[in-house]
Amino acid sequence: MSGARTRATGTRRRFLLASGTLGATLAAPRPVAAQAIHWRMQSAWSPRDIFHEFAADYTRKVEALSGGRLKLDMHAAGSIVPPFQMAEAVHAGILDGAHGTAALRYSRHRANSLFGTPPSFGWDSHGFLAWFYYGGGEALYRELINGILRLDVVGILYFPMPTQPLGWFRREIRNPAELRGVRYRSHGLVGEVFREMGVALTPLPGSDAAAAIDRGVLDAADSNNPSSDLQQGLPDVAKVYMLGGHHQQAEAFELLFNKAKFDALPGDLKAILRQAAFAASSDQLWYGYARYAKDFEEIARRGVAVVRTPAGVLEAQLAAWDRVLAELSKEPFFAKVIASQKAWVKRTAAYLHVNNLDSAALAQAYRHFFG
Length: 371
Description:
Layout: H1 2-27, E1 37-43, H2 50-65, E2 70-75, H3 86-92, E3 97-100, H4 125-134, H5 137-148, E4 153-158, E5 167-169, E6 183-185, H6 188-196, E7 200-202, H7 209-214, E8 220-221, H8 226-232, E9 240-243, E10 253-258, H9 259-264, H10 267-301, E11 305-308, H11 311-328, H12 332-355, H13 359-370
Parallel strand pairs: 1-2, 1-3, 6-7, 6-8, 9-11
Antiparallel strand pairs: 3-10, 4-10, 5-8, 5-9
Helix pairs in contact: 2-10, 4-5, 6-11
């Protein structure tokens, strides 16, 4: 009996100890979960444009990687401020962030386009972003936006865009002379190249180009990709789609964040904002390949003549770049960036152009297998 009583006493003691521990745990104040950080952002793109889809996709990646600790609310172009004023709005705290391109600030300093739509030195967007992150470009970018422009923002470049088409035309352009006097929609550094070729440049918003062509105000418009062009209605008003060009071989998105808010984040969230952009570079490009091809097929079904830009026009574009860069390089910082970009391309492309097959060789293989 004494053994049974001892066991019972021990059992009661353990029960009471466990009950006391549980009660203390239940009575203790529970830690409050950290409240999610909400930032308000705006893109430079209309709500139905594939680029706005990409902007929204970036916000989803950030939220997922941060476990919901950082939420970015992405608004479409013009919802809060005009696209060309986004950088100033981020600086002032009206916006916490923005999604666009550095070329939107071309009117503030010509060198902005060198970080958005750089010259065609024989590189592509992958080479351009490689220069930005591993060839000294990011330091020059900060010198421009934080130093020269005095914008309190943090910028990240991402998404290596494919080469842009020559654009949409009412009639086919067979030689450089036929571009003279063409009323063409473009802007920024690319617009300077076309103006140098004799084009009558009209810097309308891209979303207004189709309506302007339809009314006879424009003869042609630049282009970025088949999906955006289809959404804007360009295949319905201009029936010649000219592909390939030296005016814009490389381009990338720009993410901007208010610097004070960015600096106040914990280190892991800062890293997530940057690494989410790098992840999006691949993911969005792969999706773009699938979507662009699908929408390109739809454009062809609408009776559009798809034409490769003639060699003479390509040569004239390079000559125009020579003249534009000579003039703009009179400004010291612009010249400094150009020198850095040229040095990078000269060093890195020496291998790539020997090793990689050019478009003619890739087309040869395509014809072999698909006719």
